Hints:
The protein is mostly beta strands. It has one helix and five strands, in the order βαββββ. Strands 2-1-3-4-5 form a five-stranded antiparallel sheet.
Amino acid sequence: MATLIINSKGLPTAVNLGYDLSLTAVACSNYVSSPIGMFIPNSEVWVSATALYSDATETLALAGYYSDGTDWKYWDGNSFTSGSTC
């Protein structure tokens, strides 16, 4: 008999974010002009998110600056290393 394993963490939360490889101001403005769909851990909010994924299977996102139009954060490909307001 097969055992069903349920992910107790839940699915990651979808968020729309602006992105730029090197400039915070561009990431902030790209939130309005060209947002991209990303994912953060379930039950977390953007400002305090601990990880960033490019898809719902939790593939780590590419490095760069990401913004929700209010706050930006730098993701180095493994963790957030800095952040502030737009």
